[in-house]
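[scheduler] slot 2 assigned
[scheduler] job type: sequence-to-structure, two independent chains
[scheduler] chain ordering preserved from manifest
[runner] begin chain α
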Amino acid sequence: MLQLKLKQLYKKKGVTQHQVSQDLNIRAGTLSGLANNNRISWDIEILEKLIRYFDIKDMNDLIEYVSYYDYIKQLESIPRQQIEEEFKDVFEDYYGKGKKNKEDHD
């Protein structure tokens, strides 16, 4: 499984996810999903913005391969409260803030 190394890039550049979101005009929920590897697919335009922003010369600085086994072990080590908080932005982006379920969004 491929994962983005956004959290490492934020730290290396000394920026927050919120700052990157504002600088690149990318929704915070989108970046959160990418940084936490909760996205099934990646938008090429967003990846290109991130590559330019972080001045990526080697794709290994942005993307890494993690075996499925190691990925599951990573997930198992995350406290439930942290998962709920990290997914909050993703759900809000998908369903809309203040919406309780998908039917409310449609």
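[runner] end chain α
[runner] begin chain β
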Amino acid sequence: MAGTLPAEPHISRGAVEPARLALDAARRKPGTGRVRWVEGAAEVLPQRSFEAVLMTGHVAQFFISDEQWLSTLRLLRRSLVAGGRLIFDSRDPPGPGVGALGSRRLTSVRRAAGR
């Protein structure tokens, strides 16, 4: 979850998290008062409702099977409007910390098959 969010009233934000304790901790962070918090998983997301979905914190490691991971990705795709983006936040724990990257900015965009 973001520590601070820009105060832009025309942008709606939501967060879906299956763990209540994680939701409670996120709610207490500064700048998150405008976020709509939902306890659940990808199944609770409405169809064709989001321009972007961000998956954070090594979320992929929590899926037990390939089928569960693929099902989640399909549900997330279903929740996106045409041209929407699925964004992953990932780090390489054994690799250098973000501080070692200096001022370089890493960006990668890949289009999913069929999009």
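[runner] end chain β
[qc] chain β: Helices lie at 20-27, 66-79.
[scheduler] slot 2 released
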